[in-house]
Structure formats: structure tokens, C-alpha cells
Design a protein that fits this description.
Blueprint lengths: L1 H16 L3 H22 L1 H20 L4 H15 L4 H18 L2 H18 L2 H10 L7 H22 L2 H21 L5 H13 L3 H13 L6 H17 L2 H17 L6 H13 L2 H18 L2 H115 L14 H19 L3 H6 L17 H10 L5 H8 L3 H14 L5 H7 L19
Helix pairs in contact: 2-13, 3-4, 4-5, 5-6, 6-7, 6-8, 7-8, 8-9, 9-10, 10-11, 11-12, 12-13, 13-14, 14-15, 15-16, 16-17, 19-21, 20-21
Length: 550
């Protein structure tokens, strides 16, 4: 089971990484076209200004034309620029050329102007006026090229009527009229020419043969130069053919090609951008659809065509409504996200509060534990020291007691012997004669035991005193002052006990203590506390703790 799962995961990763190169190339091409379209929209103002400068230069030339024929030709160029830029301005210059044609009495000029004016009326939504102009033209007397133009304009007229009316009751009749015009065109155009092939492709589309239409329009598109109106028209025809074939990806691709080219050429009658907006709306890309149809609406307003404004007015509210609904949903989601984020932030703040509070409690507990540990270590050290002191002095005093018990036993035997022998006069000889010596012996044994426990006591004690008051050991013995503070170091702080041990009065002890405190660098109550910590306890058992019997 694990092996199968591993193989399955590996296959998915392999498919994602090793996608077909044509697919990745197509995705890259679509991204490139989308960036190009967005750049063209961003620079639309520059293209419009360039177009206006071009028209202004033609107007200056037309105003200074020496002959009516030259002026007619220059104004025809102005109309060519205006008919996809500003509809009513194009109509104005066509009417100017009508006047020139009448002044010259040129019937061909007048027919060309009527054909152009009918075309502009059909773009403006003036269908009655356009139909009236078509009917006023004497078709049998037209040249072949004029007949072709007549049918092309008629086809555009009926196509616009279909879009404008948006009524199935009339669509079939208009389509039959378009078919008749195309049949006439095929009979007039040279067979195999680009125009003939274009009409043949439209008939194939009408018959449902989208493959043939794609092939013909594809060949025509590849023959066009980029950034020309013919290139944009071929791309638009190819996009319609792909739509009929069900290939919406290529439809979108060629719609972007056509729309980008039209924007660069400042074509305000931009059918491709409107079709692209509808395609994206159908695909669910509301943001781009709304962006493109908004731009198309601004172009339609600039072009000033009632037909174009009507067409966009039907679609714009639908896309705008979806776009506003999406924005409202995004705002609701953002508000919900803000509330959830605030709650999460509040939860995090509460969690952090308790975390830091608990951390502080733990830190305080650790500090207390550390302090207690240090106190425990200090107590253990003190207990160890006390144990050593007790062991040393216990042995010392046991030995001293043994000595004095032996002395008392010998004294008892001597007294008993003299009493039995009735030597009463010699009992005076048994009285202790060496009391002072025994006292000195006791102090000497104490000094020896203490200095073995705290060999550096005197050195540390002297550091507490001013230099002139410091003490030196005399043949390894302590003096009375040092013995007093040695007893304090051993934990004996009662003055009476110290006085009894040293065989002096308590007042004498007070005097000695007062004298030494005055000689201390830092006297006072803390002096005795400092003395209790002096000296490093020696655990060296090399010397005997028991003094020899005297």
C-alpha cells in the first residue's frame, strides 16, 4: 500500500513538473498578451494624443489645399481617421466632402460620400437615415469597387441592426439579407483574393463549418502586419471562428491581440475589447471583465455613438452588479477576517499574558528554590563544620575527662591509703599544688585543637583590625582576647560561659570585647557576626586530636 501511494505521489509531481511544452508555452504567451493589453490601456492617453496630432496636421493641410480635389482627398483621409475615432466628426467631414463633390459636379465623389455616410449612420445607430441613403444610391450605375463597398456597408448595417434590435423575430430576415450581400460580393470579388477568401470564411461560419473558417482566417491573419487595422480585424474574425469552434482559450488570445492593436491605433470603436469583457465575464473573471468593459464604455463615450453606447449599456449593469456583489462579498469577508483576526490577536494576547505570568511565577519559584538551595548548602556546610568541631572537641574533652578521672582515682587511692595508715598529718601533701599549671594546660590543649580546626583564623581575624592592633601567635598559643573570639567562632556567645571557661569574670570578657571592637576597622554588632564566619575549616586529620596526659 505504501509503495502504491509513493508511486502515485511521484506520478502527480512528475505530471506537474514535466507538463507538455506547448501547454507551458501557451500559458506564457497568454500572460505576455495580458501584460501587453494592460500596458496599452495604461498608455491609451498617449495613443489618443498622437491620433489627435495626426488629424490636426491633416486638417491644417486641408485648410491650405490649393484645389478642391486636393482638399477632398485630404478630408477623405481625415474621415478615414475619424470613422473609428470620433463618429460625429467623421460625419462632419463627409458632409464637407459632399459639398465639394456637388461643387465639382463629380458623381463618383458624391456616391463615395453617400456610401461613407450610410456606413457612419449605421455605426451611430441612425438606421432609418442609413437605409434611406442606401436606397438613394443607383446601384446599377456603380463601379465594381463601389458595389463591393455598398455590400460591405449593407452587411455592417444589418449586423448592427441584429445587435441593436436583439429580437429573434427580425434576426432571421436580417441574416438572409446578409447572405444575399455576401453572395453578391463573391460574384464581384476576384476569386482567391484576400477579400474573396474572407467572405468565403464568413459563409463557412454561417454554414457551421468552423474548421474551414479557422483555417481561412488563420491564413489571412498570418499575412497581416502587426499594429495595423487589418491585423486587428483579422484577429477579431479569427477569435469569432474559434468561439464557434468551442476553443475559448484561443478565442481569448485573439481577442486580446485585436483589442491591444485597436488601443494602440486609438480605435475607439473597439468591438474586440467589449467581446473580451463578455468572454471573461462568462469565465467568471469579474475583475478583468469589469475593468475592460469600463474602458470600453469610456471609449464609446469618446466615440459618441448611440449604437455603441446602447450595446454597452445592456451589458455594463450586469457586469457592474456582479463586480459590486464581489466587492461587497470581499468587504464582508474582510470584515469577518478582521473580526476573526482581532479575536485571534486577543486570544494570543491572553495566552501571552498567562504565559508571561506563569513564566514570572516559575522564575520566582526558581529564584526561591535557588535561594533555599543556597541556604541549604550553607546549612549543610555549617552542619558539616559543626560535626567536625563536635567530633574533634568531643575526642578532646573525652581525653581531658579521662585524664582528670585518672587523677581523681589516684588521689582517692592515696587518701584511702593514708587514712588506713593513720597518716593524717601527711594528707596535706595530697592537696593540688599545680592548679595554675592545669589551667594553662587546658588552654594550651584548647589552642592546639582550635588552630588545627581553623589554621587561618588568626590571619583572617587580624584583617578585621587596624594594623597597629593586630595579634601574633606566641609559640602557637592564643592570648585571652583571641580565645574569647575563638569561642565565639565555635558558637559560644554567652559571656558567662566564656568567663567560666577562661576562669575570669564576665566584666573582664566585656572589657576585652569592647577593646577589640574599638580596634576593628568596622566595629559594631556586625563584628561578631563576621567573626562567626572567619577561618577555613581544616579537615586534615594528620595531627592527633587528643593531647598527651600530663
Amino acid at each position: 500500500m505504501t509503495i502504491r501511494r509513493t508511486i502515485g505521489m511521484f506520478s502527480v509531481i512528475l505530471l506537474l513538473v514535466c507538463r507538455p511544452l506547448p501547454l507551458r508555452a501557451a500559458e506564457t504567451d497568454m500572460r505576455h498578451l495580458q501584460r501587453a493589453l494592460h500596458e496599452a490601456i495604461a498608455r491609451a492617453g498617449e495613443y489618443t494624443a498622437a491620433k489627435e496630432r495626426q488629424i490636426d496636421s491633416l486638417r491644417l493641410l486641408a485648410a491650405g489645399a490649393p484645389t478642391l480635389e486636393e482638399r477632398y482627398a485630404l478630408q477623405s483621409q481625415i474621415v478615414d481617421n475619424y470613422d473609428s475615432f470620433i463618429c460625429d466628426s467623421a460625419e462632419h467631414y463627409v458632409l464637407e466632402n459632399v459639398r465639394i463633390a456637388r461643387s465639382l459636379g463629380n458623381a463618383d465623389y458624391l456616391t463615395d460620400c453617400r456610401l461613407r455616410l450610410a456606413f457612419l449612420h449605421s455605426l451611430s445607430g441612425l438606421f432609418l437615415q442609413a437605409d434611406s441613403l442606401f436606397r438613394s444610391i443607383d446601384y446599377p450605375r456603380l463601379r465594381t469597387d463601389q458595389k463591393c463597398q455598398y455590400h460591405w456597408n449593407r452587411i455592417r448595417y444589418y449586423e448592427n441592426l441584429i445587435h441593436y434590435s436583439n429580437d429573434e423575430r427580425f434576426t432571421a430576415g436580417y441574416e438572409r439579407q446578409i447572405d444575399r450581400c455576401r453572395d453578391s460580393l463573391l460574384s464581384l470579388l476576384p476569386e482567391g483574393s484576400k477579400e474573396w477568401l474572407t467572405e468565403r470564411a464568413f459563409l463557412a461560419q454561417r454554414a457551421g463549418d468552423s474548421a474551414m473558417a479557422v483555417r481561412i482566417f488563420g491564413d489571412i491573419f498570418r499575412d497581416q502586419q502587426p499594429d495595423t487595422h487589418a491585423y486587428a480585424m483579422a484577429a477579431m474574425c479569427l477569435a469569432k471562428a474559434y468561439r464557434q469552434a468551442g476553443d475559448t482559450v484561443r478565442q481569448e488570445r485573439y481577442l486580446m491581440e485585436a483589442a491591444t492593436t485597436d488601443i494602440r491605433l486609438a480605435v475607439k470603436e473597439n468591438e474586440a475589447l467589449l467581446a473580451l469583457a463578455m468572454r471573461l465575464f462568462e469565465a467568471g473573471d469579474i475583475d478583468r471583465a469589469y475593468s475592460y468593459i469600463s474602458f470600453a464604455l469610456s471609449d464609446a463615450n469618446f466615440y459618441n455613438s448611440r449604437f455603441k453606447n446602447t450595446m454597452i449599456a445592456r451589458l455594463y449593469p450586469i457586469i457592474e452588479s456582479c463586480y459590486l456583489d464581489k466587492l461587497a462579498t470581499q468587504r464582508r469577508n474582510l470584515r469577518l477576517f478582521g473580526i476573526v483576526s482581532s479575536l485571534l490577536a486577543l486570544g494570543c494576547a491572553i495566552a501571552l499574558f498567562f504565559y508571561f505570568r506563569q513564566t514570572r511565577i516559575v522564575s520566582q519559584a526558581r529564584s526561591r528554590l535557588k535561594r533555599l538551595t543556597e541556604e541549604l548548602l550553607h546549612l549543610n556546610k555549617s552542619l558539616d563544620e559543626a560535626n567536625v568541631v563536635k567530633e574533634r572537641y568531643l575526642g578532646y574533652f573525652m581525653n581531658q575527662c579521662a585524664i582528670y578521672v585518672n587523677k581523681l582515682d589516684r588521689l582517692r587511692r592515696d587518701v584511702s591509703l593514708k587514712i588506713r595508715n593513720r597518716q593524717y598529718d601527711r594528707m596535706q601533701e595530697l592537696a593540688p599544688a599545680r592548679g595554675r599549671e592545669e589551667e594553662e594546660e587546658l588552654c594550651a590543649n584548647f589552642d592546639q585543637a582550635f588552630l588545627e580546626l581553623y589554621p587561618d583564623f588568626v590571619e583572617k581575624f587580624n584583617m578585621l583590625l587596624v594594623p597597629q592592633s593586630r595579634y601574633a601567635l606566641e609559640e602557637g598559643h592564643l592570648n585571652t582576647e583571641l580565645r574569647i573570639f575563638a569561642l565565639i567562632r565555635l558558637g559560644i556567645s554567652d559571656v558567662t560561659q566564656i568567663a567560666n571557661f577562661l576562669h575570669c569574670s564576665p566584666q573582664t570578657i566585656y572589657n576585652y570585647k569592647s577593646k577589640i571592637k574599638k580596634a576593628a576597622i568596622e566595629g559594631g554588632e556586625k563584628f561578631e557576626q563576621t567573626v562567626r564566619t572567619l577561618g577555613k575549616l581544616s579537615f586534615n586529620p594528620s595531627h592527633s586530636d587528643l593531647p598527651n596526659e600530663m
